[in-house]
Write a structure and sequence with these properties.
The protein is α+β, with helices and mostly antiparallel strands. 54% of the residues lie in helices and 7% in strands. Strands 2-1-3-4 form a four-stranded mixed beta sheet, covered by helices on one side. The longest helix is centred in the middle third of the chain and has 28 residues. It is globular. Bound molecules: glutathione (GSH).
Length: 245
């Protein structure tokens, strides 16, 4: 084990749902990164992101030191654990990683919030997330969360477009990401790097949940993408991957 001197970190994230590491792209990204780097961790389920230092999940506790934001946590762990799955990348690959990360985290993530919380197909599935809320207050709680999400997406801007425009924008993003990807097995070739964690986080919540959308249909039609998702899950989360018949 590479990190023997350190105890297991605590990883705070949403409870698992749909048989994937996490429905939150950022939580799935961080847990995938921990598996790529073999850093020991234990999962702590949280329902309320506001308990974290940045008011969002994921966050970690490393021997009493609490830290939020998946990228800040990754930088911190690279430094304290002296592991860097990106060390072998050249400047061009690093630049591509950053551009793909920004596309996924600053654009695709909002479209995914729209498909999961606002579109009826998504909301039918996502509302089950609130089953843990006591029944008498559940209708009000879910109404408020969805209203807050609509407001956030309006302010961010994506919700000012028609449904067809948002779906087309999402498909364009994904086409660009898939075109930038090597022939595998990982995004940049033979070895996994941080962008693979980011990419699995963004993909799993779309292709491995039952939430229907034209974006999901598009991704399911891309053999390269589906092979990649299956390979990443089989390699890093074998316990969540149904065995092949
Ligand atoms: N930049 C952050 C984004 C994390 C994030 O947006 N988390 C969402 C869940 S996907 C969250 O906690 N949202 C709750 C909120 O904003 O109140 C990261 O990389 O960790």
């Amino acid at each position: 084990m590479t990190n023997g001197a350190h105890g297991a970190i605590k990883l705070f994230q949403f409870p698992r749902q749909f048989g994937i590491p996490n429905v939150s792209p950022f939580c799935c990204k961080l847990e995938t990164w921990l598996r790529i780097t073999k850093i020991p961790y234990e999962v702590v389920d949280v329902d309320a992101p506001r308990k974290g230092p940045k008011g969002k999940v994921p966050f970690i506790d490393d021997a009493g030191h609490r830290l939020g934001d998946s990228s800040a946590i990754i930088d911190y762990l690279k430094g304290t654990r002296r592991v860097d799955p990106d060390a072998h990348l050249d400047d061009g690959q690093r630049a591509t990683s950053l551009l793909v990360q920004r596309t996924l985290e600053e654009h695709v993530a909002f479209i995914t919030l729209y498909t999961h919380f606002i579109r009826d197909d998504g909301w039918r599935e996502t509302r089950a997330f609130f089953d843990a809320v006591p029944a008498p207050v559940r209708p009000l709680a879910t109404l408020l969360v969805r209203r807050q999400m609509r407001k956030a997406l309006w302010l961010q801007g994506i919700a000012r477009h028609s449904d067809a425009e948002i779906m087309a924008a999402g498909i364009s993003d994904w086409k660009a990401v898939l075109d930038a990807m090597s022939d595998g097995p990982y995004f940049h070739g033979d070895r996994p790097s941080t962008i693979d964690a980011t990419l699995l986080g963004a993909l799993a919540t779309i292709v491995r949940t039952p939430i229907q959308s034209p974006i999901r249909d598009f991704l399911h039609s891309q053999a390269k993408c589906m092979r990649y998702a299956e390979r990443m899950m089989g390699t890093f989360f074998p316990e969540m991957t149904p065995s092949r018949r």
